[in-house]
Write a structure and sequence with these properties.
Helix content is about 45%, strand content about 10%. It is of the alpha/beta class.
Amino acid sequence: MGAPGEAGVRGAGCLPRAPLGRQRETWINMVLVIGATGNQGGSVVRALLAAGVGVRALTRRPAGRRAQRLRRLGVEVVGGDLGDPDRLTRALEGAVAVFAVQNYWETGPERELRYARSVLQASRRAEVRHLIYSSGLGVRAHSGLVALEGKFQAEQELRASGIPYTVIRPALFMEDFLGASVPLPTFARYLLSRSPIAVGRLLIGVLAAMGPPSRRVPLCALSDVGQTVSWALDHPAESLNRAFDLVGDAPTVRDLQTSWQDVGLPPAWSFPGISLGLRLLRPDLAALLHDLTTTAEAEWHLPPLQLTRWQDFLQGMAHPAH
């Protein structure tokens, strides 16, 4: 699984190599970012703009507030829908690369795969020279995980398409402990909406209830997505037709709990039935979290970058820069 020849992580303290020297390819003059108003897409937009790359954002709501903010940053915003390959092809005109992410938690596996196929079709028509697809850590054949089925099939079809590609597979996002993309039931989102820290207390409590405290939790930050995409475009010789797992740190569940409190945050919630409640309300999420904490570290294939450490993220969260 992943990129052949890449060394796997051998422990929570083992990090990828330091960033390589920049080798910006002169042909990268415009990148289409699908999902630019979302979490991962927003990270990619920020990283590409910082690198001086032209960005075109595809969004279903080109008149929305998030799209307007992108325009003020100098992003070209175009309206489009992944269910319309013809419109997507037009959005790709003049772009030499594309970043694509689909949200299983919003679409389900069938529509997720349909949207991925639409991106492949449009990219082939537009003769895209580099397609970067965001998948998920743990994607593999016969995983039995509904949340990864569409991503696995999309990866297989991408490899067979002939389109030059890079696959990135993010781990659990550190920002999820602030409610960034945890697919909570509607009533829970309402109850926790005024306190993002409460999401982290709940999530750590769930992880603690799912098994031994020695289990490792693979994590990355949203900024790692943008950093890796920018690197992949800079280094096609190293990134094309390969897959990379984004794991910046893998603390144990016990370390998650203690480090959370060490920076002055309130302790995780723990009450009877917390894990059972998740399995009943969101069995797909419960199965994915269990799989993430039992994944084999030796199979992780990391980009040659310094990704975010959990402790650094916590320090920044508890003591944000002004």
